Amino acid sequence: MKKRVLILVLFAFMASITMRGQLNDYKYIIVPKKFETFKKENQYMTSTMVKYLFTQKGFTPVYDDELPEDLANNRCLGLLASLSDDSSMFSTKVTVILKNCQSVEVYRTQEGKSKIKEFTAAYKDALEKAFVSFDGINYAYSPKKVEEKQTEPQTVIVSYRNDVKKLEEKTETEVVKQEATLENQSYETIEPETSNFTKAVEKTEQPMITSSMLYAQPIENGYQLVDSTPKVVMKLVSTSIENVFLTDYQGNSGVVLQKDGKWFLEYTEDGEKKLKELNIKF
Fold first, then answer.
1. How far is CA 182 from the centre of its chain?
2. What confidence tens digit (pLDDT) does each residue in 12-48 have?
């Protein structure tokens, strides 16, 4: 019995190491704003919650319509997240699946289950349980090494009248520039010069947080914050912790929480954690 338990533990450990190596090959997690299993975009806050949970586990999640330039040019840098939903009338059951650019499944979490009756809270609870599968993986992006192709040297032979002279070996990126005599021969490279041209990235305009007062209006499963315009600045999703809310600020997953009587927004942008103080009136 002890041997069997030890074998299972070793198998789980080796599987964790193997899976970590597979996930480390990918720089991004692509999160759809509308999962195939749902009819509406971000239904039950599933897209927001999945993006937030991946951030908490150390990954770099991005929405499918807000890809960074390197990922837009090479989709194989990221894994596409999807949900397998086997929910019934009495319980919510979801599994998170990651597939590469060739639609090959790379990773599948355990099934997260919840018996909460309210849908948004139920999917949040089930997803949190599914994401336990990422504990201990210690993800860290490690780019794949690209093998450089070796160019075989070629011999350039120049025939001039009846004299044949063998020139020094040159790589295929060099050509002979000839003049009237052999003595004045020279070489120039035909390698392309590195361009400093960069493609402009279009950014969608989103509401910014200012120091002015924000007013909390109750909505399903939380609040929406509006300014004096009034314009909705962000939505807050209630959690099981008092005065702690999930939010999505300018495409970045974040948390709004109260500390020492003040409200703060904490979110991650380009891998850097940021903190903003909010002036909220409930």
1. 59
2. 444 444 454 589 999 999 999 999 989 999 999 999 9
Residue-range domain boundaries for the chain: 2-134, 158-184, 214-281
Exposed / middle / buried, residue 61 (Cβ in 10 Å: 0-12, 13-18, 19+): buried
- Whether the Cβ atoms of residue 35 and residue 47 lie closer than 8 Å to each other: yes
Distance CA 83, CA 231 (A): 32
Instruction: Give the SS3 label for residue 132.
Output: helix
Contact 81, 62 (CB under 8 A): no
Taking the model in full, what pTM does it have?
A: 0.51
H-type alpha helices, the chain: 2-23, 46-56, 69-73, 119-130
d(CA 9, CA 110) in angstroms, rounded, equals 17
How far is Cα 66 from Cα 115, in angstroms, rounded to an integer? 34
- What is the C-alpha to C-alpha distance for residues 94 and 37, in angstroms, rounded to an integer? 10
- Per-residue model confidence as pLDDT tens digits over 155-199: 444 444 454 455 445 444 444 454 444 455 444 444 555 545 454
